[in-house]
Amino acid sequence: MAAKMPLVTEDEYIELERKSLVKHEFCRGVITAMAGASARHNALCANMIGLLFGALRGGPCAVLTSDQRVHVEATGLFTYPDVVVVCGAPQFHAKYRENLLNPRVLVEVLSPTTARHDQTSKFSHYRMLPSLVEYVLVYQDERRIEHYRKLPTGQWLLTECTGEEASVELPALGCTIQLTDVYAGVDRFAPEAERQGNEGNEP
Question: Which residues lie closer than 8 Å to 180 by C-beta, 6 or more apart?
């Protein structure tokens, strides 16, 4: 029987993370290393950041990169969303000041190894953020975006956006993003699943 890994405290996690060259998620005593991203993933993140920065420039909202750690107080999760939008005054953890508490919109670019986590368990954590009103999932291997918007009832409405002419409306930010702009230039990078398959066939 395999030995269980010892649980760590929040203090131990933060101390480790401040020294580590690799990002880790943390929740309820368990640390999980985050896998490195592909070039296609990074290109999609960069496009989203650029589009949101252009749309929000000069307004009350700011766009932050995946180096911004977010903390979900209700569940204990510490994690690094791919793109973070915060509106108004940012709120930070009282003890660990580098951890943002009040994102307005979160974006995750789905990878083959993380898609299910981002769509299910991570979203269940994110939904416990009182400030969060929109969650955007960007697919790598097809031009498809899933957009979740929190309704006044507390329910989340899913809108699926696919195809060259599709767009994603972000009411909380007062802007609309075209899928052609989100995926502009990313075809020079092979989809991650295809790249991994080709690597496996190499002699």
Answer: 164, 165
- State how far the Cα of 100 lies from the Cα of 104, in Å rounded to an integer: 11
- Total residues belonging to the chain: 203
Tell me how far apart the alpha carbons of residues 162 and 73 are, in angstroms, rounded to a whole number. 34
CA distance 77 to 125: 7
- 169, burial (CB in 10 Å: exposed 0-12, middle 13-18, buried 19+): middle
**Left, alpha or beta for 109 (phi > 0: left; psi -120 to 50: alpha)?**
beta
- For 72-131, the pLDDT digits (tens) are 999 999 999 999 999 999 999 999 999 999 999 999 999 888 888 889 999 999 999 999
Residues 6+ apart with CB under 8 A from 190: 40, 198
